[in-house]
Amino acid sequence: MHTSAAEMLLEVKGVHAGYGKIVVLHGVDLTVQAGEVVALLGPNGAGKTTLLRAVSGLLPWNAGSIHFGGRDLRGAGPRETARAGLAHVVEGHRIFTQQSVVDNLLLAAYDLPREDRNARIEEALTYFPEIAAKRNAKGVALSGGQQQMLAVAQGLVRRPRLLMLDEPSAGLSPVLVDRVLAGVAKLREAGTAVLLVEQLIEKALAVADRVYALAQGRVVLEASAREAELPKRLEHAYFGQRR
Amino acid sequence: MLESILASGLAVGAIYALIGVAYNTMYSTSRVMSFTAGQLGMLGGVLGSLFVLRLGLPMLVGLAVTLLCCAIVGVITEFVAVRPVLKSLEQHLYVLSTLALALMIQQVTAIEWSTEPQPFPRIFGPSLGGMTDEKFWLPVLASAVTIVTLELLYRRTLVGRAFLAVAEDNFAARALGLPERNLRIASYALAGIIGALAGFSGGALLLAFVANGPLLNFYGFVPVALGGLGNNRGAIVGGLALGIFQQAANFLVGGIFSSVAVFALFIVVLLAVPQGLFGTTTARRV
Amino acid sequence: MGRARIAAGEDVPEREEHAGAPWSHVLPLVAVFALATCVPFVSNDYWVLIATRAAIYWVLVAGLNLMIGFAGQLAIGYVALLTLGAYTASVLAAGNVTPPLNPFVALAAAAVLGAILGVIVGLPALRLRTFYFAISTLGFATIVTQIALAWQSVTGGGIGLPGPEFPAPLNTHWGFFYFCLGVAAFCTWMTSNVAHSRFGRALIAVRDADVAAEATGISKPRLLVTVFMFCGAAAAVAGGLFASLQTYITPEAFSFDLSVLFFIAVLIGGRGSVLGPLLGTIILTLLPEFVASLAAWSTFLYAVLLLVIVLAAPGGIAALLDFKSRRPLQSNRAIVPKPSVLDGVFTSKHPGIIALRSVVLAFGGVRAVDGVDLDVRPGEIQGLIGPNGSGKTTILNVISGYYEPEAGAVTLAGAPLPPGNPVTRAGRGIARTFQTPRIVGEATVLQNVMIGGTILGAATFAETLLALPRYRREEAMLRGAARQALRAVGLEGLAQVRADRLQHSELRFLEIARALISDPAFILLDEPAAGLAADEIVRLGQFIQEITRRGVGVLLVEHHADLIFDICHHVTVLNLGRVLASGTPAEIRVHKEVVSAYLGG
Questions:
Q1: C contact test, residue of B34, B77, B99, B246 with most C CBs within 10 A
Q2: C197-245: per-residue pLDDT in tens?
Q3: Which CATH number fits domain B2-123+134-272: 3.30.1450, 1.10.3470, 2.30.110, 3.30.110?
Q4: What is the pLDDT of chain C when averaged over all its residues?
Q5: Is A1 inside a domain boundary?
């Protein structure tokens, strides 16, 4: 199979999606290349979470197209997208509090062949030694930050080609946020692509290659993370064009 | 007298407890309280009598076929009465769809089988009378076996853990890629087996009687109401307590008013503690 | 209050402006009963008996319809009330306990007892969830039958006793048929009046949008208890008539199958309708007669019918007959508010200020609101903004009474607003909209707006049942006020359309109209711009400004920075439950901390 120089891993074109009658996304275009970290920013209600849910199949979408690794994702549910190599860590570090760390990771490995499960779990835990030390503790005994690390680890168990993180910093202290985002940096080195939705702009820009800004269901900005005028451009994007 | 109340109370309470567990099993993966739980119990007794007494199958084979049939009924429930209404936001629809299905099951049984109670086969030979008769310890044994098996399932197997995951946080389970629909179907089949076991083990006590359906629907739900929705341990405790309470009331005030007593208890507890004695409160409304 | 609004430049009322049931609803009912009167002439005694039975069942179902179809309470075991009524009437007429009473008096006594038991059976509905309540009614049914069996001295136990006998000419088949038909017609008329009254609308509001119902001042317990009394009385009267029809009753006659018939008749007929359940009752009563060979399977057929309805046509017969709601709507509809109409909506008042001082509220261990001061002044728009989780909606919910703060004071004109009691707000002149529109999808746009004016009426339930003048007057006034509110927001063309056919933006304006109709002193808006197009947001902003120009105080919780900065007189910024900044829009816009709070970091 021929691949172009910049291999397009995720390609979202003109996607519309919403909840019932409320249309949230009004035609969104977005790409993620293999091995790059893309930050998705924007004010609340812009549709960032909606977009991630549409891509992973949690939310039905209409109009437009979504391709992952060349494959058309129309009609695919979360199980199929996970099998294709797309991991979605939802917002709110929703792990299973009544089960242990290891069990949480085992569940993430549900679709893997039995013999691979333990190895992959250990691999995921290497990113977060702090929770590796608490492998038999129940989810409810972990702190918020540790639960977030566990949630990300769940996403890593299947060695995804693209990991989508929805606001991993929410409710976490700055120190813990840094730890979680350090994991993201490690992933980039290992060749995993990351689509990172974040509220903390500076921290997201520090770890990202490219950035999109979403407002009111549309992409209002696309740029390299290193661009000089970026903070000002973002402020405009958030607060509207009229000043 | 006390031993009699205790023996019969524990026995009938164990049957109620198992039906409660069947309710919980269906609820945990679908958030639906299904009217078919009592019917599954009824079918356990009726099909057991059909296969073993009428058709002459060996006891174990009859049990296996009964469990299988009820598992199928459970799966049919998921397909016909649960899946189609889950998409809708209207809470009341699943009450109606499962009620309709339960009525259909009951009517077919009443017409094809009999409206009168029919005998249930003895498993271990003729009755010796007294408190050690099989009709008293069979249901208790069945509940113990069920609880132990469920614990093993939930704690030791990946499928069981997946059940727990779907029960705790349906959305997170979906997002993780767990096969939510398959798990739901499996849990309805499992509920069918549990209900059938309740009816089969309690066959000697309750007989193969079509009216057991609505009876078990109500008495099997009281442990759930008392113990909290989705709480199996609460259902067991609630069921056994209910059984003993009912038999004691039977003895003290007679059969007819014992049902009044049970019902009064049910209403009083629910009005005082709507989420059950061991249950958790529901989420914010606004 | 309402009279001033009607006088201010009102249009001539339309043909449909009819206090109580519009003709389109009344005509089919009249037709059914007109046809029914012909039955004895075209058939034999057997069919007259069947028709009598259908009429008696309908007396019960007409009341039960209000409980299941309108209030949404799934009372499956209602045969208990039929049993009670039958035995009460029979016992009193036979003289087992008291000297034999006149059968009409016995019937009346049964009605009174039925009302009481109806309340008892229904009370759990106020606390229990749907399924639990359904099961509890089954329990009641069992108990009543058990009592009938056990209380041999009075009820004759398993042997039973004779039903009441009515004097001539009612003791003939024809005479009794017309008597029952008359009672049924009377019940139909009464329930139809309730259906098209503020009680009927309040019931469906409680059923489908109970949170919004509270905000409009509808008190669920009082409403439901009233309905339970009526249902119980109707069912008991039906029981007395049933006993007379059977001429001899035993507990076996009151089977679970009968309960199922009543219940399914309402649901096959469709919720929120009177005609639907009437047709449903007739169909279910007649069905076993036409398929005589399948008589044993009749309950099975009812269950199949119920399942089919639930899966394929949840709206029942009523929805199938509702041709009006299938007429296509114009597709490119624009919402064009007419603020000038607002002149007739608001009367002048001096309500004082809504003041929050040091309000604290925690969920679990997290302080959602951590010591907030806020004012909402008449004639001004107070904006409330902040990132997700900052506590804005929580504050709105505290003011409107859904949450009870742990500390601090919430007052209006110095007097405290009762915490944790949202039903009191409407009476104090505070109306609100919701983050996701909470409307009754199955009702028309006009009916949804009229729900907002429920507390404006004073006509009692009894006056409504009998369509007395005060009820008619108030209905006409409320309808006029609703049309005015719809004209103001620009939705009058959609007045008769089912609300669930509206677009999202139209639903937002519908909620605003519902808030307007009660002539409030304050309106709390919860993210009204979410999901609106840019031009709609502009019109919304202008409209809100026009509202405040008439003296109303507005609290605007929003994400859209543009809207906030454009129209608010005062802006408060929240972050993590605390006030970050407070001032005019110009001050807030350049406030360093606000900008960084929004952009994170």
A1: B99
A2: 999 999 999 999 999 999 999 999 999 999 999 999 999 999 999 999 9
A3: 1.10.3470
A4: 89
A5: no
Q: Note the residue count of chain C.
A: 601
pLDDT digits (tens, 9 = 90+) for A149-176: 999 999 999 999 999 999 998 878 888 8
Distance from CA of B179 to the nearest CA of A (A): 7
**What DSSP assignment string belongs to A103-128?**
HHHHHHTTTS-HHHHHHHHHHHHHT-
* CB C117, CB C100: distance < 8 Å: no
Domain containing A114 equals: 8-239
CATH (domain of A157): 3.40.50.300
Instruction: State in words which class domain C339-599 has.
Output: alpha beta
Among chain B residues, the shortest Cα distance to A53 is held by: B175
At CB < 8 Å, which residues of chain A contact B? 56, 58, 77-79, 81-83, 88-90, 94-99, 103, 106-108, 110-111, 154, 158
Asked if A36 has any chain C CB less than 8 Å from its own CB, the reply is no
| Chain C residues with beta carbon closer than 8 angstroms to that of B115 | none
The answer to whether residue A3 sits within a structural domain is no
pLDDT tens digits for C354-397?
999 999 999 877 888 999 999 999 999 999 998 777 889 999 99
Q: Are A45 and C530 in contact (CB under 8 A)?
A: yes
Q: Worst-scoring range by mean pLDDT, A200-209, B3-12, B116-125, C14-23? A: C14-23
Q: What pLDDT score does A7 carry? A: 73
Cβ <8 Å between C140 and B263: yes
**Residue from C399, C403, C385, C392 nearest C356 by CA:** C399
Q: Which of helix, strand or coil describes residue C600? A: coil
Please say whether the beta carbons of B211 and C255 come within 8 A.
Answer: no
Instruction: Please say if the pLDDT value at position A147 is more than 60.
Output: yes
What Å distances lie between residue C490 and A233, B23, C509, C590, CA to CA? 38, 50, 8, 36
- Give the model's pLDDT for residue B89: 64
- What residue spans define the domains of chain B? 2-123+134-272
pLDDT interval class at B279 (50, 70, 90): low
Q: What is the pTM (predicted TM-score) of this model?
A: 0.88
Q: ipTM of the predicted structure?
A: 0.90
Q: Structure tokens of C262?
A: 């009543």
CA dist B221 and B204 (Å) reads 21
CB atoms within 10 A of CB A19: 14
Domain membership of residue A199 (yes or no) is: yes
For residue A195, the Cα-to-chain-centroid distance in whole angstroms is: 5
The tally of CA atoms less than 13 A away on the side-chain side of residue B114 is 13
Which residues make up the CATH 3.40.50.300 domain(s) of chain C? 339-599
pLDDT at A239: 64
Q: Which pLDDT belongs to residue C256?
A: 81
Q: In what order do the strands lie in the sheet with C354-363?
A: C366-376, C354-363, C407-412, C415-416
Give the burial string for C444-475 (b: 16+ CB within 10 Å, else e).
bbbbbbbbbbbbbbebebebbbebeeebbebb
Residue C316 and residue C268 in contact, taking contact as beta carbons nearer than 8 Å: yes
- Tell me what the mean pLDDT of segment A84-93 comes to: 93
Q: What is the pLDDT of residue C296?
A: 77
Q: Is position A27 within any domain?
A: yes
CA A209 – CA B265 distance, rounded (Å):
65
At what angle are helices B92-112 and B212-227 packed, to 10 degrees?
Answer: 150
